[in-house]
Specification:
By secondary structure, this protein is an all-alpha fold. The chain has helices spanning 13-50, 52-59, 61-66, 82-111, 117-154, 173-190, 193-202, 208-213, 215-229, 234-272.
Length: 280
């Protein structure tokens, strides 16, 4: 049996245990945050399901306004379990909206110990801006876009007349909810564009020059995303694409402020070290 080299020493058991301890503590902390988030989601789901009828009536209000003047405006369901599962989906929709601040706070509390103090201060504004932008997108689509889109869809109805068959809209509860939730989530998520681009600018992955240089490609990508996320008609696509283009321009100005703040910090740091900036 060959002897081991003298300099080859086994790692002490206490060193191994110390290296395992941080990983174990992180896993315990992650489990704690996940449990709190799941409890918050479950509690919000129960509340959402209790008020599912009221929430659905609120979501159906744009269609009800568009159907004013019809002889018998109503929604239908064609399967026994359809309305029940629709209310379950409404409860989950409400739970996502209500529990999001708690889930975002748990995520921040899990990540915050690994950040420097200035990084935590820089991250907090984005934590508050995210739900505000989501609500802004949801409000825009609910009060501005959906009434116009539903009136556009209703314009394809054909009234009864001599020699022609009438075409009347009789929407189903689950299909209407699916369309409405698609609108709200699409606008709410796409309104996070300034937050995403500003964060990327802070870490140096994007710059103002690159955002301006590739603006035309970004506009093309915006229309592609709008075509995928919205119903297949030009009005719905443009109703999402136009606000996104405005948000893209706002993101550029936000990144300008980020770059100015970074240059100022770098200048102050160089001045503290006695480094004179190079001339042009």
């Amino acid at each position: 049996m060959s002897a081991q080299p003298e300099n080859a020493q086994a790692e002490p058991p206490d060193e191994v245990e110390r290296s395992r301890a941080p990983l174990l503590s992180h896993l315990i902390e992650l489990r704690k945050r996940l449990i709190i988030s799941l409890i918050a989601f479950a509690a919000c789901f129960v509340i959402g399901y209790i008020f599912a009828k009221n929430i659905y009536a609120f979501l159906a209000q744009p269609l009800a306004s568009a159907l004013k003047g019809h002889s018998n405006p109503h929604l239908i369901y064609t399967a026994l379990q359809e309305t029940f599962f629709t209310y379950v989906h409404v409860g989950m929709f409400a739970a996502i909206c209500l529990a999001f601040p708690i889930i975002a706070a748990q995520l921040y509390m899990f990540v915050a110990p690994g950040l420097y103090r200035n990084e935590r201060r820089a991250f907090l504004p984005f934590l508050f801006a995210t739900p505000i932008l989501f609500i802004a997108g949801a409000a825009l689509v609910y009060y501005g876009v959906m009434p116009l889109v539903y009136k556009f869809f209703l314009s394809f109805e054909v009234p009864p007349g001599a020699g022609r068959l009438p075409i009347e809209l009789v929407p189903k509860v689950n299909e209407y909810l699916e369309t409405t939730m698609t609108f709200i989530f699409a606008f709410g998520l796409c309104f996070q564009l300034p937050v995403l681009l500003t964060l990327l600018a802070r870490v140096g992955l994007v710059s103002v020059a690159s955002l301006r240089k590739y603006r035309k490609y970004a506009i093309l990508a915006i229309f592609c995303v709008a075509a995928i996320l919205t119903p297949p008609d030009a009005l719905s696509m443009c109703s999402l694409a136009i606000p996104l283009m405005l948000l893209y321009e706002i993101s550029i100005w936000s990144c300008v402020l980020v770059e100015r703040a970074r240059k100022k910090r770098e200048a102050e740091h160089d001045a503290s070290l006695g480094i004179t900036p190079a001339g042009p």
